[in-house]
Amino acid sequence: MSLQFKVRLTEELHEKLKNYADAKGNSLNTEILQRLADSVVEDEKYEPISADSAKQKAADSRQLVLEDIRRLCYFEINRVAQLGGQHAHISLKKYELYSYTDEAWEEAITPIVKELKDKGFDVNENDVSEDGFGIRF
Questions:
Q1: What would the pLDDT profile of 97-110 be if each residue is shown by its tens digit?
Q2: Which residue among 17, 88, 109, 122 is least packed, with the fewest CB closer than 10 Å?
């Protein structure tokens, strides 16, 4: 489960974060979440953690990744459509999905592919990999 809340940023900080996000190909939301997560991980670096806790953290993070990939799909579809194209490529490399178990992979990607197909987009499931996939419309 993820929560939403508003944060006030100075224009200067907002611009810096946006520039960092753009340079990495991230959304501003992903950039801020990653930086917050990194700071918490750094604080917890030397604290012992159980396997169950690690699994729960991974499950919680997968939900955030799923939402970010979903937003990325629609962003790319809109961007390509505005340029007159009919094929968007979704790069998934930054999410390091190769580290997912098969079950976690299915849990993360299958709902997105199904949603896109339900909306009339053509996604070849055989071409979906941890590197990315194409969407035709």
A1: 888 888 888 888 89
A2: 122
